[in-house]
User: Fold this.
Amino acid sequence: MIPDRRTPTLAAALAAVAFLAGASGTARAENITAKYSCYDGTRFTATFTPPGATDGSVRLAFPDGRKITLPQVISADGGRYASGDSEFWIKGLGGQLTTGRTMTNCDSE
Assistant:
């Protein structure tokens, strides 16, 4: 696997969101957007809303115009967003997208 120079940038941004979400005061973290390409050819943009005044969530926007918003749910490792038969689970730059009975691995671009 070829090293990806974006790894520290996205990882640092997501770590900052997690840190700011736990910080007290009125500071509010900004949304973070990342593009993903999946092994089955699926592509989408994920916009992460950090927890704060409201629960954290991710909004997935697909090229065909379809949009899915998933609330953040409990995860032992990584970030997990799920509702109904849709789930997006991320760890580092990778993730798994499940819609219905279809699951695919994805990498951030």
Notes: The first strand starts at residue 32 and ends at 38. The longest helix spans residues 7-22.
